[in-house]
Amino acid sequence: MEKIPSPGASASLCVVLILSSFAVVQLLGPTLQFSPLGTIVGGVLCSGFSFLLVTLLGNLQELTSPSRSQGHVEAIVSIAGAATVAWTIHPVSATVCTFFSVVTVWYISRVSKEVYRGAGTSNTKKTARSRR
């Protein structure tokens, strides 16, 4: 049986990684904003920031109220936060970041549905056949 890390440990790791990635983006910002490819790379880097932020917010929600929720607010806040960080590089970076962040949140939602599909149910459909 796998040991699942606690939400507190995961949130702590996310905080460290968010601060580190923010520092890297701010240090590379002047370099990235002077080339078209750099602005796209900056947007992709900031979409990783979005992934970390949605993970942090989900862990904080798990710590404060263990009931499961949809996570729409966390997704919107993380996309907006990542786009704001990307905007410090270039407006194109913010657009690229928003696109990749939406794709990331969609993929997280898809994986979450697979993991939490219904712990007590099987994946097979039961159909009733009637004879006439």
Automatic annotation (TrEMBL):
Predominant location: membrane
TM annotation in the entry: 39-60
Subcellular location per the Swiss-Prot or TrEMBL entry: Membrane
Top-level taxon in the UniProt lineage: Eukaryota
Keyword Metal-binding (UniProt): no
Entry annotated with the keyword Cytoplasm: no
CC terms in the record's Gene Ontology section: membrane
Membrane topology reported for the UniProt record: Multi-pass membrane protein
Keywords in alphabetical order: Membrane, Transmembrane, Transmembrane helix
UniProt similarity note: Belongs to the KRTCAP2 family.
Full protein name: Dolichyl-diphosphooligosaccharide--protein glycosyltransferase subunit KCP2
Source species taxonomy: Eukaryota, Rhodophyta, Stylonematophyceae, Stylonematales, Stylonemataceae
